[in-house]
Design brief:
alpha+beta; 2 helices; 2 domains; six-stranded mixed sheet; three-stranded antiparallel sheet; Rieske Iron-sulfur Protein
Length: 167
């Protein structure tokens, strides 16, 4: 009887272990939101932002920047037409809410305040309304391999990040 009980307990423990593994794997899979496509680079502080064009694709890459104590973020993406687009990761309408920033969901950027969906092809091209604040060609230096956004230009945008990612 003792052997029968040990065998039954072992089977139950194996089943329990298997269920735990399945549950843990499922939880990890489902906890990754559609925004999990996002790549966030290491933060830089008080200097020019240099973006390596080779690391860009159709998925948004987010570049955290700290300018004189103000947290900011620039997003860069390769649009479907192959052009490289840049914008501040804050919404032109919702920035003051503290939740006016974007996360990628599938092939679109979604404002975390109002839910507006924004196609990658619209980044930097569209301004006004609920969309990321564009960083135009006049405000960056583009070479074959890099995009440089000056610290001075970043500092001028500090006000739109005053409440950024705060409720």
């Amino acid at each position: 009887m003792k052997t029968k009980m040990n065998t039954k307990m072992k089977k139950n423990l194996r089943l329990l272990g298997l269920l735990v593994l399945v549950f843990a794997g499922s939880a990890r899979l489902f906890s990754q939101s559609p925004g999990a496509l996002n790549t966030v680079k290491p933060s830089i502080a008080d200097k020019d932002l240099v973006i390596n064009i080779a690391e860009l694709s159709g998925n948004a890459v987010f570049y955290p920047v700290d300018i004189n104590g103000t947290r900011m973020e620039v997003l860069a993406v390769k649009a479907p037409d192959g052009t490289i687009r840049t914008a501040f990761n804050t919404c032109q309408v919702c920035y003051a809410s503290g939740r006016g920033f974007y996360k990628q969901q599938g092939t679109v950027l979604v404002c975390q305040n109002c839910g507006n969906r924004f196609r990658m092809s619209q980044v930097e091209v569209r301004s006004g309304g609920c969309n990321p604040v564009p960083i135009s060609k006049d405000n960056k230096t583009v070479t074959d391999t890099t995009i440089t956004i000056s610290k001075e230009f970043l500092a001028r945008a500090k006000d739109i990040f005053a409440r950024w990612k705060r409720s």
